Amino acid sequence: MKKRREFSNFGFSTILLTFSMICIVTFSALAFVTANSDYKLSKRVADNNSSYYRACENVWDEISQIDAILASTYEGSPDKAAYYEAIKTALSYNDTAINKNLAENESNGKVTGLTYTITCTVSDTQTLTVKLDINYPVHRQDAFYKIKQWKLNTDTAFEENDTLNLIGGN
User: What keywords are annotated for this sequence in UniProt (predicted)?
Assistant: First the structure.
């Protein structure tokens, strides 16, 4: 007579439970790592945006001061040449942390306008550059300046690395 063996299901349920727990722990660890890296990335982006908007605020403050100087200079100047000379002396101050530069636009030996460049540091690798064309308003309601450039410059250089390191290779 053949002996009949009885099959026990205790081993299969234990293996299934262990495998399920390993999967749950692995997926939860992966979810935690992904969430943590997403948090760090969003924090870095928020910090970069905050520093950019802080630099923009500093530039707008500088532009509002320039606008007030241009308005008072326009009121006190009898003609275009006197206006530009008064602006050159009024904007030659340098008392803030913002780097400024004033250049003349000339045509046929006459000053036709001024270009005022404002450079503000955003981060270690980024600077905000704003160029204003200062105009002599023909009518009282005309603008004193025109924003010619508003540019965020990045100072890092990209170095392409297209080499493939193999095991035992150079």
Answer: Membrane, Transmembrane, Transmembrane helix
